[in-house]
Write a structure and sequence with these properties.
This protein has a domain of 123 residues. It is built from 7 helices and no strands. Helix 3 runs antiparallel to helix 4, helix 3 packs antiparallel against helix 6 and helix 4 crosses helix 5.
Amino acid sequence: MCKWVKTAHDPVSVNSTSNMLAYWLDQINSFLWDNAVNTKRKPGDDIAGDGAFREAGRPPMLIGLAVLLFAEAALLIAVVVWLVVELVAARPASYLSAVAILVLVAISAAWILATAMGTLRGRSWIRGATVTWQVMQIAIAVGCFQGLYARPDLGWALLVPSIIGILLAISPQVVTATRRDAV
C-alpha cells in the first residue's frame, strides 16, 4: 500500500502514476497544507495575494523597514546603471567578471525590491529575507574596514543601515504585523 493513494499501487502501471499526480494536484489546490500553519484562513481569502484582507493600518516600524528596503533597492538599481555605463564606456580587465558582477548586483536589486514590496503587503517571508540581506551587507562592511583598499566610510555606510534593518525586522511590531496568522 502506497502512502499517497488509497488503493494498492503497481509502480510500473501508468494508472498508479496518474493516481499519484491527481492526489498531489488535489493537495496543492486544497488548503490542507496551509491549514497546518494557519487555521484562520478560509478558502477564497487573499486569492489575489495582495494582502487586501489585512487591516489598513501598518505599524510605524514596518513602514520604516519598507522605507529602508526601498532606499537600499534604489541604491542597488543605481549601482546596476553605473555598472552598465562602466561596462560600455570603459574596457574592463575581464568582460566575464564584469558581466558576472553586473548580474549579481541586478539579482540583488530585484530581491531587495521584491522584499520591500512584500514588506508593504505584510508577508511573513520578508523577515528572513531582510535579515539575510542585512547580514550579507554586514559581511561586506567588515571587509570595507580592513585590507589593502580599506574604505571605512563605505563600511559605516553599510553597517549602520544593516544593524537598523535587522533591529526593525525582529522588532515585535514587525513580527506581529507579518505573522501568518495575523489575518
